[in-house]
Amino acid sequence: MQNRLKGVFQEKCPICGKGEVFETKGNVLLMKMPQMHETCAHCHHRYEIEPGYFMGAMYVSYGLNIAEMVAVLLVCLVIGVSLDYILYLAIFTVLLLWGFNFRMSRVIWMYLFNKG
Ligand SMILES: [Zn+2]
User: Fold this and answer.
1) Residue 19's pLDDT band (boundaries 50, 70, 90)?
2) How does strand 35-36 pair with strand 22-24?
3) Transmembrane helix among the record's keywords (predicted)?
4) CA of 19 to the centre of ligand 1 (A)
5) What percentage of the chain exceeds 90 in pLDDT?
6) Are 73 and 6 in contact (CB under 8 A)?
7) How many A from CA of 33 to the centre of ligand 1?
8) CA distance from start to end of the chain
9) What residues have their beta carbon closer than 5 A to ion ligand 1?
10) Residue 83 · residue 46 · CB < 8 Å
11) Angle formed at CA 27 by CA 83 and CA 74, multiple of 5 degrees
12) Mean pLDDT of the chain
């Protein structure tokens, strides 16, 4: 379990836990998408096992976005930020974490359906 969590956060292959999933991490400021390797360099596991496989990662991404917005809301309420700015801060945070959410949602999706 601990190794799988570590694998998710290090964005490693869900089967062997050694190969990198992403070739580039992307850059939100330069509008560059993260690029995935097609297969694991170590065990040759094909990451997108069927066309549209990563469509389900959108559900994970949605959950991550909601969790981040709730976290921003709670932090803002604790430090006393005006309600007028909380929505803008939440949207800004989600836009800033867009690349992270993209990568994490795909990796979490793969780990959910590959037992390794
Ligand atoms: Zn692998």
Assistant:
1) very high
2) antiparallel
3) yes
4) 5
5) 80
6) no
7) 22
8) 11
9) 13, 15-16, 19, 40, 42-43, 45
10) no
11) 20
12) 92
* Nearest CA-CA partner of 22 in 106, 111, 113: 106
Structure tokens at 105: 């949602």
Distance 52 CA to ligand 1 centre (A): 20
Token pair recorded at residue 20: 């990198």
Cα separation of 84 and 61, whole Å? 26
CA of 25 to the centre of ligand 1 (A): 18
Location of structure tokens 């990568």 = 103
pLDDT digits (tens, 9 = 90+) for 50-105: 999 999 999 999 999 999 999 999 999 999 998 889 989 999 999 999 999 999 99
State the distance from the centre of ligand 1 to the C-alpha of 39, rounded, in angstroms: 8
Centre of ligand 1 to C-alpha 97, Å, is: 26
With bands split at pLDDT 50, 70 and 90, how would you rate the model's confidence at 45?
very high
Question: What is the reported pLDDT for 116?
Answer: 64
- What's the Cα-to-Cα distance from 58 to each of 40, 80, 107, rounded to whole Å? 22, 32, 12
